[in-house]
């Protein structure tokens, strides 16, 4: 979750003048200090590579429309709404990244979801289950979107019935929000932080690689969870968790001990301490978020989590292991008390310090020297939902005599040579996906360009969104919200119609898919065109038409996960990546959250290895 983009023209008028002390981004960009030129050394490989990904942010786009989900919010929150290709095809990017390295364990550094809905978790769980076939192992660290509404609102979905924010969250997660979709109308469609941790522990307990003694937690109530794998070589080797209910659920935590596979020449084990940097704290409201106060944008680790993982660190020190720290939030996005606590924990370690993170959607290398004499080398992986879409393949090596730790962070994907520009990165994606999509690359690019432009032009204004969200409930006041939401559903239906033409009816099987009862003809193309041609005239007809469109999109989107043909998978991955790149290219640099290529180069985004010593 990015901080508010106050230098947008709307926010300059609406918020920057009133809140410049709080809002990040008004000041100019200053690159973080990064690692210097490599001094060289006698490095011995310690680990085999693992894949590090982050910020997939699978988004539920077919629930009841929310003010927070209207395109207008994109005027100040970078990741609020993406091109329509993202909720349809975006999870295929993660699938592609993981399946391209079937022998490497993987770590997802958080923000699996976006709105934090059960439906988002279910779709992503299918990707993870497929990735763990055979001997493959993986782990997920919690992100701020994994249990908070849009990564910023920690409403209590288990609390009072008068909690209108939680009700709104739950409504937004009721996918396919048509009158007949009773199966998606429970009061538990939203997934709180406690719910996310419980789902993850259940996934690990009953998955293909279920470990002895690992049992799912109870569905409700406070629960302290401590587990250690009896297999000394296991990748997921330990879990410490605390699950909280009610208004306290955002302070729940999930910490994990991960043991990386040894390289043949290794003289030490490497242990990753996977921290939960999302002990998020108090509730916030609309104005709090506008003013830059949200529990998800900054990371927090509370003392009880530090105590819980200290035993792992001390054990590793006694064994002579290398300890690597990892968490969702980048180091500078951690609150000062958290950084002080973590520096205290890191003092136990007798070797150079490395921290791996996500959250920024940009990617960089940095060296931090505050709060301790020992430098901390940080590798921040990029996003799989916003450009630059990339991930890292990481391994470690150590020079015993120099006491210097080397991090190899291969930027993926790449061609014959490492990517040295955004053009190289896009070319690598196209070579791996678009080239195998069975459609002319230029034709696909034109489809994506037209669709991204269409969606961007349908966005509302932040002022409209803010006034509506702060006003009292009024049906007709919400008509513009449904109009914007319908435009987004139309864009997704257009993408699905294009998929049907591009792949062909035998490949996509859309014409064998049962249609909702409101479709007079049981054929997707006929139903979609009927809905897109229908004109709404008042609030009731707008809301009814939106729900029918959403129900159709939800049904087809679910079906997309059944498409396993390599050409179909390449097609969907290509379109999701390409749309993200086009959307980024159409975004003013002042609103690009420092993701411009020159700023990324200034923070060594294209670098593929660095090392750190003891001082």
Number of strands: 15
Report the uncertain regions.
1-26, 70-80
Structural class category: alpha/beta
Cα separation of the termini:
33 Å
How many helices in DSSP terms? 18
Radius of gyration: 24 Å
What is the architecture of the largest domain at the second tier of CATH? Answer: 4-Layer Sandwich
Average pLDDT rating: 86
Helix content: 25-40%
| Order of the strands making up the biggest sheet | 5-6-7-8-9-10-12-11
Structural shape: globular
CATH superfamily of the largest domain: Metallo-dependent phosphatases
Q: Characterize the quaternary organization of these chains.
A: single chain
For the record, the count of structural domains works out to 2
- CATH T-level fold name of the largest domain: Purple Acid Phosphatase, chain A, domain 2
Task: Summarize the biggest pleated sheet.
Answer: 8 strands, mixed
Text of the CATH class of the largest domain? Alpha Beta
Strand content: 5-15%
Short overview:
This protein is of the alpha/beta class and 615 residues long.
Can you offer a commentary on this structure?
The chain is an alpha/beta fold and 615 residues long. It folds into two domains: 9-431 and 588-612, Purple Acid Phosphatase, chain A, domain 2; 438-585, no CATH class. 36% of the residues lie in helices and 13% in strands. It is built from 18 helices and 15 strands. The chain has helices at 9-19, 85-89, 91-99, 118-131, 164-172, 193-206, 286-290, 303-319, 336-346, 422-432, 441-457, 462-470, 479-503, 505-508, 524-533, 539-560, 566-585, 597-602; strands spanning 44-45, 50-53, 106-108, 138-140, 223-228, 236-243, 253-259, 270-274, 322-326, 353-357, 364-368, 376-380, 391-399, 404-412, 609-612. The protein has an eight-stranded mixed beta sheet, with helices on both faces. Strands 1, 2, 3, 4, 13, 14 and 15 form a seven-stranded mixed beta sheet that branches. Strand 9, helix 9 (336-346) and strand 10 (353-357) form a beta-alpha-beta unit. Helix 8 runs parallel beside helix 9 (336-346) and helix 11 runs antiparallel to helix 13. The protein is globular, with a radius of gyration of 24 Å. It starts with 8 loop residues before the first helix and ends with a strand. The model is unreliable at 1-26 and 70-80 (pLDDT under 50).
